[in-house]
Amino acid sequence: MTNYTKLPAILLLADGTVYYGKAAGKIGTTTGEICFNTGMTGYQEIFTDPSYFGQIMVTTNAHIGNYGIHKEEIESDSIKIAGLVCKNYNIGFSRKEASESIQDYFQNENIVGISDIDTRALVRHIRHKGAMNAIISSEITDLEELKAKLAEVPSMDGLELSSQVSTKEPYFYGSPEATYKIAALDLGIKKNILRNFDSRDAYVQVFPAKTSFEEMDKWGADGYFISNGPGDPSAMPYAIETVKKVLAAEKPMFGICLGHQLLAEANGIGTMKMFNGHRGLNHPVKNIIKNHCEVTSQNHGFGVIPDEVRSSDKVEITHVNLNDQSIEGIRVKGKKAFSVQYHPESSPGPHDSRYLFDDFIGMIKGELTW
Q: Which family does it belong to (predicted)?
């Protein structure tokens, strides 16, 4: 274990609120949009989820790092959060399968964090004030200097980030002998999505974010998947155009999270930046087609505009969030295309929604009737 002394650190929010704590991870300075996740487990999967790119994560569980780092539980090849805010930063870990501590992990990947923060008070503040930019530093103590650096950080509203986390070259996942071929547009795809396709006898080719439909179509896929990812969907005309062409070609299509927002945009439905977004493992969603409820894993700061969905003659609503009535799922009328705002691959989270992968395979087979 790395020798480590907790040095002082500062968290400054864009509204001027200051929190003092202890350094966690690499000594340095980091910036990003601050947000919180209410999940009680799965911190490693959260760290490596590409949808969190450019964001400082506040974890609401009191203990982070207590079960160490297990290399098989990553959702991408590197940590994607911009920084970490937590209460208890546990360098010692108890799990036999873990290969290193959270401190070694963060130091190796150059991640700056702050611990010993009253995260309950911080989350209440963000809930009241909304998501905003923030800066963490364990090397700068001058608040005016930190304010100047923070003022230079762009808003998440209008940012295109998916091309920064997407694969640079196409790659395959699964068995070439599988029954079904799925082309996945990587806007920040999570590995557990690929695992779910592989377990359903599907071979996936993953394409870079800005790949055209024409290029993807050369492979002759049976269906198309539009992935999750970070940033503002309205700032991604390249992906919206790709989705439009998949629809025009009458190909089966499934979208998750950012993919859901892009399917809406491709049908003339606008998207918006949410006040706080949904991030956690216990969001109740009702499938109004099948008339059942499910507990879902969620991570998004943007959403589709509900009134525009309800007035659209191109799509119909399939899922609704029972907390705030936001639109959690749509399907395109007359097309083999549907999407959900939440994460059915649920890593971490409950497995209530994994039937959606089966529905997509059923759509490819021509057996899905809803």
A: Belongs to the CarA family.
What pLDDT, in 10s, does the model give residues 280-316?
A: 999 999 999 999 999 999 999 999 999 999 999 999 9
Q: Are 339 and 330 in contact (CB under 8 A)?
A: yes
Count up the domains in the chain and report the number: 2
Same domain, 201 and 85: no
Torsion angle of C-alpha atoms 232, 233, 238, 243, degrees rounded to 10: 160
The answer to whether 51 is annotated as binding is yes
Reply yes or no on whether 257 is catalytic: yes
**322 band by pLDDT with thresholds 50, 70 and 90:** very high
229 is in an annotated binding site: yes
CATH of the domain at 79: 3.50.30.20
Show the tokens assigned to 81. Answer: 């959060």
In this prediction, what percent of the chain has a pLDDT beyond 90?
95
pLDDT at 370 (0 to 100): 63
Kindly state whether residues 261 and 133 are assigned to the same domain. Answer: no
DSSP element (H, E) containing 198? helix 191-198
Was 3 annotated as part of a binding site? no
- Write down the catalytic residue from 35, 45, 86, 257: 257
